[in-house]
Amino acid sequence: MTSSSAGRLPSADDLLVLLAVGRTGRYSSAAAELDVNHTTISRRIAVLESTLGGRVLTRGSGGWELTELGRRALAAAEAVESVVRGLVTRGDAAESLEGVVRISATDGFSAYIIAPAAARVQRRNPNVAVEIVATTRRASQQRSGLDIEVVVGEPQVHRAQAFRLGDYRLGLYGSRAYFDEHGTPQNLDELSAHPFIYFIDSMLQVDDLDLAPSFTPTMRESVTSTNVFVHVEATRAAAGIGLLPCFMADRHDDLVRILHDAVTVRLTYWLVTRSETLRRPEVAALVEAIRTIVDEQRPALLGLAE
To answer: Which domains does the chain show, CATH number per domain?
Structure first.
């Protein structure tokens, strides 16, 4: 320990600042969470490092990363946070959960899995707010202020944990009105006579979703979008045949699935978070609620629901 830090104990406030930075990887996100400015965050981290006699953060390619000393300090910060929360607990311990949880996921998963999971958590813990960013992309290698990401396909991430949530299926669907007018394809060869509804190929960021060329190489594009709800509604509006998640398409009686055996795609949802983030009780509560709803919805996700 340096001479300037000898005999001094770290401030609880400084430890909580480190906690906020450690969870988000960004000074700006920590400043917003703590309702202070960026300069204050930088100054408190500098004071903490002076007190501890070493670096607690190091600049990484995607934001600030904890050093070994920083990880030890973070454990102390979590203990401080736990004690502070315990002082304001009223009644049931669940009532002590509070804070903002930021999560990103695909459009359909956000709407049909995360939204009800967030509602369950919020009903039990009114002081927990959940911010949902609907996007279809790979797991981020950068610290973007998100606590949780749900992605399609096994992610390759560093300094984070990835958990397999469960599988889901996609199939080919068309509206009853479309098939009444244009006929129903009976095999893969007959698909070439029909327009195709799916993602914009040039903007698709997820390799596991780059499926169309494997069984629809001769289909012409009809309506394409980065949003899967657009795929569903364009298919319902008879714009063509859509490759849709079964758990979304099967909600609509006007959609008919075709070529079940020839075209069935099974993909996997993965949840990505940092270990220090998962130790936050409000984050852990949301993750548990998501897992519960995935289990409850498994038949629908796999296109098996009656």
So the answer is: 12-88 (1.10.10.10), 93-165+268-298 (3.40.190.10), 167-267 (3.40.190.10)
